[in-house]
Design goal:
The two termini are about 30 Å apart. It is built from four helices and 18 strands. It folds into two domains: about 100 residues, no CATH class; about 210 residues, Beta Barrel (Porin). An eight-stranded antiparallel beta barrel has the order 8-10-11-12-13-15-16-18. The protein has a five-stranded antiparallel β-sheet with strand order 4-3-2-1-7, covered by helices on one side. Strands 5-6 form a two-stranded antiparallel sheet. A hairpin with a 2-residue loop joins strand 5 and strand 6. The protein is mainly beta.
Amino acid sequence: MVFAECLVKGIASLYYLRTENSEHYFIEKENSALVALTNETKEVMINGSKTTVHSNNYIRMLKATFSDCFEIQPSIDNVNLNHRSLSSITCKYNDYVGKGQLCITYEQRSRIRFRIGPVIGFSINNLSVRETEPFESFEFDNSNDPVLGLVLDICSSRLGNHLSFQLGTDFGKSNYTTTYEETSPIYPSTVYYYDVYMQGISMKIYGGAKYNFGRHRVKPNLGGGLMFHKYIQPDYRYELETHERNIITTEEWHGEPVSNWLFGAYVQAGVDIDISKRLVLFANVKGGFGTTNPKTLAGLTDDAQYDQARVRYDLMPITFSVGILF
């Protein structure tokens, strides 16, 4: 014996029951038995391959239950197995057949659930410098960073707890290096050798949506959204060694080229495991892309040519993480 929620009350009444792993709808007419509305899946052979299809049994059950109301029969073919669609067709039946009798619709309150939890993981980051004049465009060696963060997960019972919205952040210590050489276009005998270093605290902020598949304890999911990134107190420097007619000179200068925000998007795939009603263990992998608007470097040298160097930064992180939601 269980308690079901009444969605519509009238000559025809609609009921809803949610269990831990499934949802059930029932229709009942006065002086008739309760009828379960189901939509089982089954495998069929199409062109020699197995394909999963839905039975749509609930459509046939609704047509049979509402067979005494010809006016709504065409509309039943478009009914979906959810609160709004089933309530609408039940109310239409009551309006046609009830002839003034009372029909009550009970609005389901949307319960919003907030979960928050820690995240640990590992991030592989590819940082590249583009549109650099008078310098070359180049890529740093990947920075492999352990990360620590926090995630907030928000979902609503009205959405069936499949779709949730997430806001998260993680921090890591990044360390990039690269070397490249450049020959002077005016004096071919002059060669420049650059060593470039950048390190700082990496802060990534993610905001987006996630969709869980299935109703079992282990649920795969896909998601995506916006990504924002910033390096906190970056230490960025160039070391230049110039070879000109057997004369070698060296110099070093510092700048702050990544002080502005990188912005972009990410996608993710993962799995949620319901440990209990209150605890969810999750693991996922995120891939993203972020960029900046071209920015003028400052403080490199007193040479106006260097002071007006315009650069753009592109970041492609891949982050593997695990965490728990409370």
